[in-house]
Each structure stands twice: as C-alpha cells, then as structure tokens.
Design a protein that fits this description.
Strand order of the largest sheet: 6-5-4-3-10-1-13-16
Helix content: under 10%
Oligomer: single chain
Number of strands: 16
Structural class: mainly beta
Strand content: over 45%
Shape: globular
Distance between the termini: 47 Å
CATH class: Mainly Beta
CATH topology: Jelly Rolls
Number of domains: 1
CATH architecture: Sandwich
Radius of gyration: 19 Å
C-alpha cells in the first residue's frame, strides 16, 4: 500500500527535526494581527525620483479579512532618512465591494504623515485609505513620485482602461526615494484559503532620469517569533514575482529571486 501523504509527512518531520516552529493555522500573533512578507529590490545605489510596479490579484481573497498589497519606499533629505510610506490596493471588507487603495506612511520618529485631501471618498473616513473599486485578474500600475504641488504623490492606473487615479500627496521632506520594495500584508488566519498577487514591471527611476528595470529581489518573511505565518511564499513565474498566502514555503528568507534574462 502506497502512502500518498508520504512527501508531506516527510517535509513536516524534517521541519520538526530541524526545530522549525510552524504557524500554519490560527491568526498571526503580531501586534497588528497581520503577517507580512516582502521583496526588497536590487537597484543601483543612486537617489531615486520615482518607483513603479504593476500588480494583478491573480487569486483574490475569499474570506472577510483585510489584505494589503503595497509598493513601499523611504524618503531621504540631505542624505538623511526622513520617513517612509506605502501605496497599494487593499481587499477591505468595510469598503464597497471590498475595494480600497491606501497611501500613507510615517515620519522617521514614528508620527503619521500628513497629506492633502483625496478626491476619492472613504467609507471609513480614513485620510489614508480611500474607496477604489478594483477587479481581480486585472493589471494596475502603481507610482510613487514627486508631487508637482507639495511632497510625494501616489497614483494607480487601471491598465485595462488606461485611467490614472491620483490618490493624494503626502507631505514629507525628501530630495529622493530609497529602499524600494513590494509586500503583502494579510490579516487573515494563516490557514484560510490561499490568495496570491503577481508583480511585474518593477521600475526605479533615478534622479538623473535613468529608468532601471528591477530583475532581482531579496526575499523576507515576518518571522515566527514576530508573529508571522510560516506558510507564505514568494516565487518567480518566468516574467514576474508571485506572493502567495497559505502555501508551502519553498523560497528561503534572505534568498534572492531573479527573473530570467530576456
């Protein structure tokens, strides 16, 4: 008689033997009750004027929990860090059809960044999180760039309709951007059905105006000790990066994922 669960059982026993702690069900135990995992971009060590990324929610959430998929960058002024901010779509059950977009961040000291009023409504009257109807299996282009008015702007373009929506401006000192990344933050039970996004066309534009296509990213997961799920995973599918919840982790934290050369 062949045991069809043999590979799964062996994998589990190997983890136990190595002393690996597992959190594959139950809510994350982090302070915000979320589990996050990140892709840190491999970019030239130059000041950046803009960062861009295209996202597609290829497997949307099926539970009434908050999910956040963001492009993040930090701000630098006179060579010193002044804070950081994140921009992206949210699956937010408190918003119409769970559609929201967030552009918010923090000063270096931890204070929430102020910003302009958004033209988008907000179901919860939240200055950072605005109502935005997005669709699964449809591509959206994120941009973080200097505002022509004040501070730094976040916008999202629906690539199906080619409609760009400016969310708002954040008021933070900054000559340039540094340390770009994309990430997933899931507020769900670690064992709830898998959700996944596909990241493509990651780009960083230097202050000098040179566009750099990002083809490599370093993987990071919120550790078990920090309350994270241990069954999230980042991978490459041939022309982009995939981040998935509730799956087998086969890419180690700290490793570098590389897209194949064209």
């Amino acid at each position: 008689m062949v045991c069809q669960h043999g590979p799964v059982l062996r994998s589990f026993l190997e983890k136990i033997t190595r002393g690996t702690q597992l959190r594959e069900s139950g809510l994350p135990t982090s302070s915000n009750r979320a589990s996050s995992f990140h892709l840190f971009w491999d970019v030239p060590p130059e000041p950046l004027a803009e960062v861009r990324a295209t996202i597609e929610v290829i497997e949307p959430p099926t539970v009434e929990r908050l999910y956040f998929w963001a492009l993040q960058a930090s701000f630098e002024h006179g060579g010193l860090g002044t804070g950081g901010a994140h921009f992206g779509l949210q699956y937010h059950p408190s918003y119409p059809e769970a559609g929201a977009v967030n552009w918010g961040g923090y000063h270096k000291g931890g204070r929430v960044l102020d910003g302009s009023d958004s033209a988008l409504p907000s179901a919860l009257d939240n200055p950072n999180t605005r109502t935005y109807r997005w669709h699964p299996r449809r591509r959206y282009r994120y941009r973080i760039y200097r505002s022509p008015d004040r501070g730094w702007r976040g916008s999202v373009t629906d690539l199906t309709t080619e409609t760009e929506t400016v969310v708002r401006d954040l008021w933070v000192e900054g000559d340039n951007l540094i340390a770009p990344m994309v990430w997933t933050e899931a507020f769900c039970d670690c064992g709830e059905p898998s959700a996944a996004v596909h990241w493509t066309d990651l780009e960083a534009v230097t202050v000098a105006g040179q566009a750099h296509r990002v083809t490599a990213a370093r993987v990071n997961y919120q550790a078990y000790a920090e309350g994270g799920c241990t069954n999230t995973n980042s991978s490459v599918d041939g022309h982009g990066f995939v981040q998935r919840t509730a799956t087998e982790r086969n890419t180690k934290s700290g490793s570098t994922l590389r897209l194949p050369l064209d």
